[in-house]
Amino acid sequence: MVSTAIDGSLGTPLDLLALIHKVMQRAANAKKRILRPPEMRGANRAAVLQLLRHNEHMSRADIARQSGLSEGTVSRIMSELIADALVREDGEENSTGGRPGRRLQLEPTRVAFGAEVQNWETRVAVSTMRGHLVESRRFRTPFSAEATIEQIADAFLDCRKRLGSQRVTGMGVCARGIVNSDTGVIVLGSRAGWSNVRVRETLEARIHEPVYVENNVRAAALAEYNYGSPEVYGARCFLFVKVDEGVGTGILLDGKLYPGPRMAAGEFGQMVIAMSPGRERHDRPGCLERLASNPALCDRYAVLAGERRPATSGDTSARVRSIVQHALNGDQAARDSLREVATCLGVGISNIIWGLDADVIVVDGAITGAWPLIEPVLCDPFPEGDSVTGLSVLLRPSALGGEAALIGAATLPFTSVFATGESRHAAGASA
Predict the structure, then answer these.
(1) Residue range 14-39: average pLDDT?
(2) Reported pTM
């Protein structure tokens, strides 16, 4: 038995059923892509907000031209965003003969609060919608998670009291380890006793504001992508490599953070790049984290410089900055140490590039203070632009001066605003 397929060819009934199923599936997918009026309104507002996030000032005509929206639509959206205290008018554009347009910018008084929990210290800060830190301070991280959360809550309440509840739009918190950003739980922290810590639940009960919780490297990756160098924004596959006590990677695909099904994506520090004996399942001797982290650099320099002290167990960033300065001053042991560590880091990054087809990589950490020395070493194992894959990769140091994770935490409350175009606070938020 035969039948006629849609394209006029003959096929079996099973072929026809399969083809009908495929057509129906495509129709269903197309239907999903159609935005309803409320969704279209939110998408247009989000597009305008994102333009203003990357341009300090724009006129309505500029926004219409770059967004493809009509000037009437832009004017209506602007009226809504100004009423919601997300945008403000700020002076007039230079006139070219006609009526001068009003300059628009994100509401500068709208801020959010963030906390970056590190092993040795916790930093808290207030950020604008454009990722500018307007104030920050730090305190020694208490031993217990409960005491740390309590101090973060106290700092937020003090901030809200000083700045006003209508200006402060929620809180973001980032920490090392396996962090479930959906539930706001630190599943497995990097300090003893920091397991299954219900950060969001505890803080929201205390401050009565929305709290967003994220892994520190993923938060930093978001900040670097959205508020860092303009050449980074728009990357199809963006990697943020953080080198400190370990080596972590944040992954953004088409601008969307990829956390993985178990919120553990990016743990490339566990990637073994030098086989060595041992049955360890974690921190194996040949893994990237053991070869290219801050402690690895400190240990290597101690050996080459003839020092007896090992890497310190606390914040090794200061020690790395010292080694970097020695290298820039011509210290051969420091230069050799940096070269060896950069070689391992470059091999690890190149493996990630091959695996994910990454087009932009940003490296952050104290080691980047020696960027002129380590960049050629890092790039050496990368695939070349004229290779069989045709890969062309942009590599650069962080543009946020070591503040990426803190900026990422402090701007987490704005993430949904830029994604949906909707504000949690009503009108009257400007101070």
Answers:
(1) 54
(2) 0.84
